[in-house]
Design brief:
Elements (H helix, E strand, L loop, with lengths): L7 E3 L3 H4 L4 H4 L19 H10 L5 H16 L2 E4 L6 E8 L3 H6 L8 E4 L3 E3 L5 E6 H18 L10 H6 L3 E5 L3 E5 L8 H17 L2 E2 L5 E2 L7 H9 L8 E7 L14 E5 L2 E8 L2 E7 L5 H4 L11 E4 H10 L20
Parallel strand pairs: 11-15
Antiparallel strand pairs: 1-4, 2-3, 3-6, 4-5, 7-8, 8-15, 9-10, 11-14, 12-13, 13-14
Helix pairs in contact: 6-8, 8-9
The protein binds zinc ion (ZN).
């Protein structure tokens, strides 16, 4: 698969970056997707040098000016129609990738690094737009984003992965060589409604407008006839949309979590659509369509009374592929310990 100009990756922790095979890292994994976004910490000297040699990155001074400009741009309000409530008013500058995800990927004050096929830029400010009014921004925060950011894996200021700990308090209700499904209905700290709200919020935001990356290329997801029911659900005007099913996966092993993220993306499958998004430690998969298979419907963390959350080696490996194999997850040798059925 040749590298396309629209490929995008963000990464950079010095220790992990040394292992990057650059050709691999910029290769789109799914043919239908034309972007990969990846983040980790920092910016190592080899990458800095290659970026400078390639003429793709401005000197430090120019970077500073760009960041300053973005900082001011962030403060500027704009009047227009909010994409969620459709009312006219002052619009906030919304982040497509939650700012808290960027913060979690910082290392000693260093911003994460965005890699695209054309540019390498160290930045904390990606994919912002005047999208929502203050009330709707707050709706998405309270609906799920705040909860997810609090419970995802993080290394700063302290190493923690609350959702992993909570899920492991649940009982295993299904398991095979690859995957474990946990019944989390008896774990009070787990709020699968918020996880599902966040997942739908992410794919809806990605579909609500074109988002232009550091490389100048724009990305957007299509939700088709499901865009409107999802919007109305996020607004609080309608119940959870029919024929939408949200699967949540925690990383199977707490110590090998991959610290990165990519843009919400669509995977081609027969008779339905699957969208996915990864942030540190948690993968969200949204199945949409009348053709979604029964076993996928039953794994929905929102509609199934067991509030299932899974951990899958396959899903972790898929994410590692997308994230350019930055993590040290032992890809071929890892096996589950013996399952304890509750
Ligand atoms: Zn609004």
């Amino acid at each position: 698969m040749p590298v396309t100009n629209a490929d995008l990756a963000i990464l950079g922790d010095g220790s992990e970056a040394e292992n990057i095979d650059k050709d691999q890292s910029l290769r789109p994994i799914f043919a239908s997707d034309n972007f990969v976004l990846r983040f980790t910490h920092g910016f190592d000297s080899v990458q800095r040098r290659s970026a400078l040699v390639a003429g793709n990155i401005a000197p430090i001074l120019r970077r500073g000016i760009i960041q300053l400009r973005l900082l001011f741009a962030e403060k500027i309000m704009r009047y227009g129609q909010c994409k969620l409530c459709l009312e006219d008013g002052e619009l906030q500058r919304s982040h497509l990738i939650p700012a808290g995800v960027f913060r979690s990927l910082r290392s000693e004050g260093e911003d994460p690094t965005a890699f695209t096929a054309k540019k390498i830029v160290q930045t904390s400010r990606q994919f912002q737009a005047h999208l929502l009014c203050r009330v709707c921004e707050d709706r998405l925060n309270k609906g799920g984003e705040t909860y997810v950011l609090k419970n995802m894996a993080r290394r700063v200021p302290d190493s923690a992965f609350p959702l992993f700990d909570f899920v492991n308090q649940g009982t295993i209700c299904d398991a095979d060589d690859d995957c474990r499904v946990y019944d989390t209905s008896n774990v009070p700290e787990i709020d699968t409604a918020k996880l599902a709200h966040f997942a739908l919020g992410m794919i809806w935001k990605t579909s609500a407008r074109d988002w232009v990356g550091v490389d100048g290329y724009s990305r957007r997801l299509e939700l088709g006839i499901y865009a409107e029911p999802i919007r109305r659900y996020l607004l609080g005007a309608e119940p959870f949309p029919r024929n939408c099913f949200v699967h949540v996966f925690v990383w199977p092993d707490k110590s090998s979590v991959s610290y990165g993220t990519y843009l919400p993306r669509r995977h081609p499958v027969r008779q339905s659509h699957v969208y996915s998004y990864y942030l540190p430690g948690i993968t969200f998969c949204v199945y949409v369509g009348k053709g979604v298979a029964q076993e996928q419907r039953e794994l929905c963390c929102y509609s199934n009374e067991r509030k299932p959350i899974s951990a899958s080696i396959y899903i972790a490996q898929q994410n590692l592929s997308l994230l350019g194999q930055l993590s040290n997850f032992p890809r071929n040798s890892w096996q589950w310990p013996r399952p304890q059925f509750g």
